Amino acid sequence: MKLLFDQNLSPRLVARLADCYPGSAHVSEVGLEQALDVEVWEFARAHGYVLVSKDADFAEMSALYGFPPKVIWIGRGNCSTREIEEILRRNYELVAELVQSEAIGILLLV
After folding, report:
1. What is the pTM of this model?
2. What is the average per-residue pLDDT within 29-50?
3. For residue 49, what are the domain limits?
4. How many domains does the chain have?
C-alpha cells in the first residue's frame, strides 16, 4: 500500500509512515509540486498509488471518473502533521480494506 501525499500535506509523512506504508511518496518528490490535479491523478493511477489529500477535489474526481486511483480524504480542518500520521496509523486496516475492495474508491478519515 503505497500512498501519494498531496501538496497540502507535509512531505515528512513519507518518512514518518514508511514502516506502515512503504514505497509512499509526496508530490514534491516526484516532480508534481506545481501539477494540476488531473496530472497528479494520472500519475497516481499509472504508478499504483493511493492518493491522500485534505481537499475534496480528488474525492470528487473519484466520484466522477471512478478508480483507480483510490483516494483517502482527510476530512479535518487545520491539524498537525502528527495528527495526520496518527489518523493514518489508527486506520491502517481501513486503508487496507480500501486497497483490496473492488467496490470502494474513497475513504474519508477524520
Report:
1. 0.96
2. 97
3. 3-109
4. 1
